[in-house]
């Protein structure tokens, strides 16, 4: 067993937890929503200082893992963004490109899978429903409240299973 595999996990969401999505919300306000443009704009997300600081603080004792509702097709942009912010390397869990389940289901499924072999010290996420379900399942949760809430993004996460 390697040293890192004994460390507990700190699991971080990306959108509106580490990355400020405000500049791309306009793509969700249209009908139909422009998902390609929404995700194409992600590399220009500004970092959210509170979330970034919490990742670095958590990395002192934990292995950092990223858990996002972004589709797999966004992996390269996501990895590049994480590296550009100087964030610790960590496994990035993304939804399948065709997975349209609400974020609270996809994320809880991944959390439970991770918890089978590792201690999860904390989940940090902005989505209220993800946080509630994770807390009910016994996980320690920090709700990220440092980004401006977006009704359009919340609806997309819950009803459309897109992020």
Topology, element by element:
Elements: H1 3-6, E1 9-12, E2 19-20, H2 35-40, E3 46-47, H3 49-59, E4 63-71, H4 75-84, E5 92-95, H5 103-115, E6 120-125, H6 128-136, E7 141-143, H7 151-160
Helix pairs in contact: 5-6
Question: Could you characterize what this model shows?
Answer:
This protein is of the alpha/beta class. Helices cover 39% and strands 18% of the residues. It is built from seven helices and seven strands. It has helices at residues 3-6, 35-40, 49-59, 75-84, 103-115, 128-136, 151-160, and strands at residues 9-12, 19-20, 46-47, 63-71, 92-95, 120-125, 141-143. A five-stranded parallel β-sheet has the order 5-4-1-6-7. Strands 2-3 form a two-stranded antiparallel ribbon. Helix 5 runs parallel beside helix 6 (128-136). The radius of gyration is 15 Å and the shape is globular. The mean pLDDT is 91.
Secondary structure: helix percent: 25-40%
Structural class: alpha/beta
Low-confidence stretches at least 5 residues in length (pLDDT < 50)?
none
* Mean pLDDT figure: 91
**Strand proportion:** 15-25%
For the record, give the distance between the C-alpha atoms at the N and C termini, rounded to a whole number.
34 Å
Strands of the biggest beta sheet: in what spatial order? Answer: 5-4-1-6-7
Number of helices: 7
Q: Which sheet architecture does the biggest sheet show?
A: 5 strands, parallel
Gross morphology is globular
> What's the Cα radius of gyration?
15 Å
Total strand segments: 7
Could you state the order of secondary-structure elements as H and E?
HEEHEHEHEHEHEH
């Amino acid at each position: 067993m390697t040293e890192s595999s004994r460390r507990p996990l700190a699991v971080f969401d990306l959108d509106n937890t580490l990355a400020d999505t405000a500049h791309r919300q306009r793509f969700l306000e249209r009908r139909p929503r422009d998902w390609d443009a929404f995700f194409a704009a992600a590399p220009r997300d500004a970092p959210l200082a509170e979330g970034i600081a919490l990742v670095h603080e958590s990395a002192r004792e934990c292995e950092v893992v990223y858990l996002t509702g972004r589709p797999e097709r966004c992996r390269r942009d996501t990895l590049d963004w994480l590296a550009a912010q100087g964030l610790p390397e960590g496994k990035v869990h993304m939804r399948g490109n065709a997975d349209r389940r609400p974020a609270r289901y996809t994320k809880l499924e991944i959390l439970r899978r991770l918890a089978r072999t590792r201690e999860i010290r904390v989940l940090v996420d902005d989505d209220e429903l993800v946080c509630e379900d994770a807390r009910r399942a016994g996980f320690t949760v920090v709700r990220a409240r440092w980004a401006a809430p977006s009704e359009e993004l919340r609806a997309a996460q819950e009803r459309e299973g897109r992020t």
